[in-house]
Amino acid sequence: MRDYELMCIFNPDLEESKVEDIINRLQEIVNNNGGELQGIDRWGKRRLAYPIKKFHDGYYIVMNFKGNGALLKELDRIIKLTEESLRHMIIRRD
Q: What is the CATH number of domain 2-92?
């Protein structure tokens, strides 16, 4: 397994409970697909460098985890299906 970092930007108008639901769902995906969650950093609302889907702010979340290719594909698929997601990126950490 390799170390990865997931950064997600969500709709800034979401309620805190909805954000927690999304984070819990991502945690379950990591745990159910043989991954190991190392930490979640909630950056909160921040100004975007440019508008995305007509939003000027976004709610940022950074998740560090260990996993394999199947886990990455599943995370990517689920985040793309999540309507509240504005952008996301998964990178491999050294």
A: 3.30.70.60
